[in-house]
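Regression test attached.
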Amino acid sequence: MTTDNAEHDIPALEVTGLVYAYKQNRAVDGIDLTVAPGSVYGLLGPNGAGKTTAIRAVTTLLPIPAGMVKVFGRDPAKDQMGVRRSLGYVPQQLSADQGLTGRENVANFARLFDVPRSVRAEKVERALDAVGLLDVADRMASAYSGGMVRRLELAQALVSSPRLLILDEPTIGLDPIARDSVWKHIAEVRAATGMTVLVTTHYMDEAEEHCDRISLMHKGRIQAVGSPTELIASLPDAHRDNASLETVFRYYSGGAGLDEAIEGGIRDVRSTRTTANRVR
Amino acid sequence: MSVVPAPRRTASAEGGALLTAAHPVRTGWSVLPARMAALCIVELQKIRHDRSEIYSRAVQPLLWLAVYGETFTKIHAIPTGSTPYLDYLAPGIIAQSAMFIAIFYGIQIIWERDAGVLTKLMVTPTPRAALVAAKAFASGAKAVIQAVVVLVMAALLGVGMTWNPLKLLAVLLIVVLGSGFFACLSMSIAGIVLTRDRLMGIGQAITMPLFFTSSALYPVSVMPGWLQPISRINPLTYEVDGLRALLIGAPTDLWLDLGVLAGSAVLMVTVASMLLPRLAKG
């Protein structure tokens, strides 16, 4: 396992020995990671690897002891509100409120993050524009396609000016065109704002193309960390010919590919199926 | 003629600057009311977009008044003294219809958990109590609309009610408090049972007992001895008694009714807020 070095004094995210168990099942089993400000950091692994549990611990949704997680130096165990103020979060499910218009969905988040009334309308407009939804902002979210809902969620997350944007499987259940569109907007927003992005995915190609650094997760543990190039370079010579992240993952997970390594419980399957059903 | 696609706008540097601009954040005591107000706006927006539930929910209380009320008024089966039974019943139907809306709010919050809406809200700097109180408010807002429908129907059926605006405002306050209590009770149960199917069963199991052990349909004095103490710990009884006092001048301790309802609502908001994180974990 390679070492993950912080590039700045205060990391956007620092996780130290994070452990979380659902009853007897250790979903996250002692992970360490450091996310440098301004980077796109990928948590890559199959369903059930522990990615979502790790994200839920970082986002204050799960109770964790002090000292395991720090978001820009703030510990969610001690300062939940402070951590939440610095986060933009897009969960795995397509979670826009179907009973509201796109604009209302975003404006709601602007209010919840105290965006001042004087700039709120403009900021909502800019967030919708940044994800290409301004023209359909006043349509009900229930009329949006799966890809549009994902972009709407991105706008919801952006409107609060988050320092750390967390995306949990942002392209799950989307068709290839919608996947490309979502990533294109993430890249554009990042280029315009320079915010830090932490993303989980089980798509190797997405991680390879869009992430500056990647942690490969398997069975609740991080098996390897590095940039896509570093990860491939870390393979022994015998495995390096035509190697991809899939090869890296197979090597570090003891031979399992992403498809075979799926060990997610019913929780993951249910969540994925719910999202897929809403996309159809 | 060739078609040139219009250039697509992208997140510009100017737009990026606004999106990253820091702004002052609210802290201290003002956070809770500000978040409650924000979430209440959302609930009102949802009601504005889809009013079908309000129309369909109005049918049942109207049937209670027009069919059950008129029939039992004619047969004089329930002793209500000099008060016509329909007059006696109308406040009870307002409270009942409010409870029937509220008692299934737990299902809505479980649905929002499953859809990721609740999870995402719980990652915003919003106290859990504000999330719960906003749902309670939404339940109260729907109950107020129902109450207005029942009042108009009751007036058309000849029920002699007060039209004192202050008393009517107090009626709406009681309806909101009662509805808020039952919505929070439902959300608390949701926080314990965690699934829609279990909550449906429990909701069905407790709705009728709450209704029949209250003073909505008949006076507590005609209940069997063993039932009367149960009626006295049922918040629906206090809601009905308060409404009856305000609308038709029935004798009761209005401050006691208001105090019990307000206290129960605050207690249940607290309990539901404490149980909400279980839903996020589940």
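Expected vs. actual: identical. The first helix of chain B runs from residue 13 to 20.
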